[in-house]
Design a protein that fits this description.
Oligomer: single chain
Strand content: 25-35%
CATH topology: TolA/TonB C-terminal domain
InterPro entries: TonB_C
Distance between the termini: 58 Å
Domain TonB C-terminal: 35-130
Largest sheet: 4 strands, antiparallel
Signal peptide: 1-19
Radius of gyration: 20 Å
Organism: Alteromonas portus
Protein name: Energy transducer TonB
CATH class: Alpha Beta
């Protein structure tokens, strides 16, 4: 019995060492208003999380979203404008956007704001640095 358990453990460890690690990253682009012109900015200016549903399916692509933020800084509506692949990115990306908290830019008056943002989801690189480079390249081409 101990022999079988040891053999199973060795098999699992060996299989794990041959597993390929795929790196993924997300690139956020403020299309309009630009980040400098915005009334509302994301509270935490960190790279959005890669949606687990997309990563598990090995899906990469881009999406352009219209995001409505009200005068209180609450996300009211998220609308998909375009995506590649079509419609697959909409739900997981919208879940990421819904988690964002908005903060009023210093010196601006609270007002409703319609934002047009682009999210690029990039997978398949052999390092984080390579994933970031790929995503910057992807973000420079049309999302249609």
């Amino acid at each position: 019995m101990l022999y079988r358990a040891s053999l199973l453990l060795i098999s699992l460890l060996s299989a794990d060492s041959f597993a390929t690690t795929l790196y993924g990253t997300v690139e956020l682009t403020h299309l309009s208003p630009t980040q400098a012109e915005s009334t509302w900015l994301r509270e935490k200016q960190v790279v959005p999380r890669y949606p687990m549903k997309l990563a598990q399916k090995g899906i990469a692509g881009c999406g352009i979203f219209k995001v409505n933020v009200d005068a209180k800084g609450t996300t009211k509506r998220i609308t998909l404008v375009n995506s590649v692949p079509k419609k697959v990115i909409e739900k997981p990306a919208a879940e990421v956007i819904k988690e964002w908290d908005w903060t009023l830019v210093e010196g601006k008056l609270p007002a409703n704001e319609e934002k047009l943002i682009r999210l690029d989801f990039c997978l398949g690189a052999s390092s984080e640095e390579e994933a970031n480079q790929r995503c910057k390249q992807q973000a420079s081409i049309a999302c249609e």
